[in-house]
C-alpha cells in the first residue's frame, strides 16, 4: 500500500497506510482531520492516482443541498422536449411523460457521478461547512452507496467509490457519520519525511535548498505562530525560491520570500525577529 | 514488532476498557475494529494499534486517551507506536456552587429593595435584578427557574440557502415543475429568496477563582442558551470555559436536564477556581477553533470579570484578532453591575477597545439584556 502510494508521489506513514488499506478493503470512508496544509485533500488525489480512477470532488458549503450535490433535472431541456413533441403532434401523454424523466435529462452532480463511475475516488471536502441536514443525507448515501431518484428508481454503485472526507473542525461533525468512517488525524510530518515529500514533489529543486527550506519550516512550526505553515507551504516556498533561481538559502533571501510560507503579519514579524541564519547554520552543521 | 496474543474476547475487552476511559467505542465500532483486524491478518502490535485508532476514535481529543489505554491494556512492551501518552489527569474537583450564606456586605435586603416598588413587584421581578452572588438557597432555586426560560440566538444573517418566497429571483426548478404539471403551459412564476439563519453564538465562560460566585449561574445560562436555540440547530451555540485552560463544554452541556449537564461540565473542566490567563486562553481558542471558522461571522460573548493575571498586552492583541474574525464581540462582566464600577482591571481595560458591546452580567435581568444584545435587538 505504502509503496503504491509512494509511486504516485504521496508519502505516508504507517497509520495512514493502514487507513487507506482498510478503506479499500472494508469500503469505509476515511475521515481526515488536521491542520490546514498537512495533505488531507491531496490524499484523495493520491488515491485516485494510485487506483487510476477519476477524482470526483464535492466542496461543501453552508446551504448545500441534495440538488447541488446529487442530481438535478435539466428543466429547460425538458421543456424544449415537450414543445418539440407538441409541434410534432405527439399525443401519447404517457409516453411523453416517461420520456421527460429519461436519463438524458438528468444532470449528475458529484455524488451521483461518483456512484455511477467505477472505479472512482470521491472527495467530500470540508464537510464541517455543510449544515447538519446535509450530514444526515450523506450518512444515508455512505452506508448504502445507493441513491433513490423518485422518477428513475434506486441507483446503486456496483463497486463503491473510495471516499475521503475532510474537516477543519469548525463544528463537531455528527457522531453517526464519524462512526461510519475510519478516523485519521494528520500530524505535521517529521523532518525526514517532509524533506522526502518536498524532494518527491519538486525533483528539480536543488537538494540543499529543499533541505534548508524544510529545516526552516520545521523551526517556524515550533514557534508560537498564528498559523503554523503546513507541508503545502513548504512546497510553495521551495518552488518560489527555485523560480527565483536560488540553489541555496540565506537569511536575507529567506526574509524576502517569507510570504510564501507565512500568511499573517504577526507571524512575519515574529519570523523576522528570529535568528534565521542560526537555524540555517545549525542545519548545515548537522547535515 | 511484537505480536499481540489473545482472541476476540481480549479485543472486545479492549473496547470495554476504552469505554471506561470515556471514549465512545460502541459495539458497532468494536465490530468494525474486529473486521479491520481480520482484513489486516496476523495481529502485529502496530496493526492492532492503528486498526483500533482508526475505528474506535472519533476525534483528536480521543487520541491521547486511546494511547494511554492501549499502553495500559496491551502492556507498555517496547515503545508505544504512537506519540507518547500524557499522564492521567487528577480527578476533577467538585463543581463550585453559588455561595449560600456569606453575603456581600452592604447588599442586605433593605437597601436593595425600595419599599414601594417591592410591594408592587412580584418576588420574581425583584429577583431578576438581584446580584446572583448574594442570594439565599431558596432565591437561587427561583433564579434557576428563571434562567431555564432563556433563549439565546444570534442575530439573523442571510445564508446561501434559497427558500421559496413570494418575491425574489425566479426559481427555475419549481417554476418548470409547475409548468410540466400543466403540460408545458407557461403559468405562474415561482420565486425564491435567500433564507435567513441566526448567526452562530460562541460563549466563553470564565470559571477562574475570581468568578466563583457567578460560575454556576453563568453555566446555567449557557445551558439554557445552548438548548433554546431555533429548532434543529442546537449546534449553533458553542460554549467554552476558560481559566487556566480552555475546555470545550458544548457536548457536556448537551444533556437536556440542567443538573446532569452541569455535572458533566464539572467532570470535563479541570481548572475550577484557578487563576485567569485570559490572553493565553483567548489565543488557544483562536488557534484551535476560532481561526478555522468557529468565530468567523459569529457573535462571540466573553463572560468574565476581566481579571487578568498574565500580560494585558497579549490579551489586547488577541482581542483585536478576535474582533477581526467575529461579527460582533460582546463582553459581559458581572462586576459591572456593582455601583461605582469602573473598568480599571488591567485586562478589562486592555480588552475594551476591541469590544462592540460591554454589558452587565450579574443578574437575571442583565443576562436577559445580554440575550437581547446578542440577538442584535438591544443597544449597549
Descriptive report:
The complex is a heterodimer of chains A (287) and B (380). In chain A, a hairpin with a 3-residue loop joins strand 6 (146-149) and strand 7. In chain A, helix 10 packs across helix 11 (207-222) and helix 10 packs across helix 12 (231-243). Chain A is elongated, with a radius of gyration of 24 Å. Chain A is 52% helix and 14% strand. Chain A has 15 helices and nine strands. In chain A, the strands form three sheets. Chain A has a five-stranded parallel beta sheet, sandwiched between helices. Chain A has a two-stranded antiparallel sheet with strand order 3-4. In chain A, strands 6-7 form a two-stranded antiparallel sheet. Chain B has 380 residues and is an alpha/beta fold. Chain B has three domains: 10-72; 160-197, no CATH class; 199-375, von Willebrand factor, type A domain (Rossmann fold), CATH 3.40.50. Helix content of chain B is 44%, strand content 13%. In chain B, the strands form two sheets. In chain B, strands 6-5-4-7-8-9 form a six-stranded mixed beta sheet, with helices on both faces. Chains A and B meet through helix 2, helix 5, helix 9 and strand 9 of A and helix 2, helix 3, strand 1, helix 9 and helix 12 of B. Chain A: This is ATPase. Chain A: Residues 26-201 form the AAA+ ATPase domain. Chain A: InterPro entries: AAA+_ATPase, ATPase_dyneun-rel_AAA, CbbQ/NirQ/NorQ/GpvN, P-loop_NTPase. Chain A: It comes from Streptomyces spongiicola.
Topology:
The complex is a heterodimer of chains A (287) and B (380).
Chain A: H1 2-7, H2 14-26, E1 30-34, H3 40-51, E2 55-59, H4 66-69, E3 71-73, H5 75-88, H6 93-100, E4 106-108, H7 110-116, E5 121-125, H8 132-144, E6 146-149, E7 153-156, E8 162-167, H9 175-180, E9 182-186, H10 191-201, H11 207-222, H12 231-243, H13 251-256, H14 265-273, H15 276-286
Parallel strand pairs in A: 1-8, 1-9, 2-5, 5-8
Antiparallel strand pairs in A: 3-4, 6-7
Helix pairs in contact in A: 10-11, 10-12, 11-12, 11-15
Chain B: H1 8-20, H2 27-40, H3 45-56, H4 60-74, H5 109-112, H6 115-120, H7 123-128, H8 137-148, E1 156-165, E2 169-170, H9 172-181, E3 191-198, E4 201-206, H10 212-227, E5 237-242, E6 246-248, H11 258-268, H12 278-294, E7 299-303, H13 312-325, E8 328-333, H14 346-351, E9 357-360, H15 364-375
Parallel strand pairs in B: 4-5, 4-7, 7-8, 8-9
Antiparallel strand pairs in B: 1-3, 2-3, 5-6
Helix pairs in contact in B: 2-3, 8-10, 12-13
